[in-house]
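Quick one: structure for this chain?
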Amino acid sequence: MTTMNDFAGKVAVITGAGSGLGRELARHAAAQGMKLVLADVQDDALQAIASELESADTEILARRVDVADGDQVDALAAATIARFGNVHVLFNNAGVGTAGLLWESSVRDWQWSLGVNLWGVIHGVRAFTPLMLAAAQADRDYAAHIVNTASMAGLVSNPTTGVYNAGKAAVVALTETLYHDLSLVGTQVHCSLMCPHFIATGIHRSDRNRPDTLGNECAPTRSQRVAQAMIEKAVTSAKVSAEQMAQIAFRAIRDNAFYIFSHPRALSAVSQRSEHMLALRNPLDPYAARPELRAQLQQALDAPAEH
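Got it. Here's what it folds into:
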């Protein structure tokens, strides 16, 4: 089995590279001596990280890409090969967040969230995996790794984040299947599933990059405002940084570890969910261990209407 042990001189493609976890993945990859293909929908943030790393003598190809658009991801793959001739690590990392009671989410909420969080991963896998497999066939020493960013939200279904949960759960299933599919065709291309819990990123501000064509005409509902405020508090007070998560991800690639978690203790909720499922019991309350949070959420949702 050929795995990634040395990153120097290798090529990494990172989506969502302009901020948050993507930016820290780019910085860590550059520190390892990698050549970088950076993609983001926010051009100013993309150019900022590209300039920062170029000034440190990192070879950079920066492209504005909306990962929800398959043609744009195909073009990114073609540009990568044209510039560097190969690709060794792919981070399908771009992500956005939505919140609120499930039935209050609009069609546009679903289209925007699934377009980035799920279709972005689908397009990345579809466009880049064949290139990696072709390189493996041509060179027995070639090794490549795909890392798909899901979330603990794909493993535990907390209330008021249903649209996000659904997309991330799909990424979990997709990546586990990718692992098995790759094992059928060779031993040189591998993949990992990254499931961060709350880490310090800017995902609570992802609405800044929402296309006008997918914007909502109505003002946010109470549940959407309440849930958004809770997410912002959790993200901004997170004790695990995006930099730490990037280090964990690269260590997992070296170890060829499939599951990548930021908060191992949070896996107890996954275990409890499975236990309830196997016992045919109704879903466990995600706030069972923190009843005060459930009370706060219910109180906020039951507050008198604003005038």
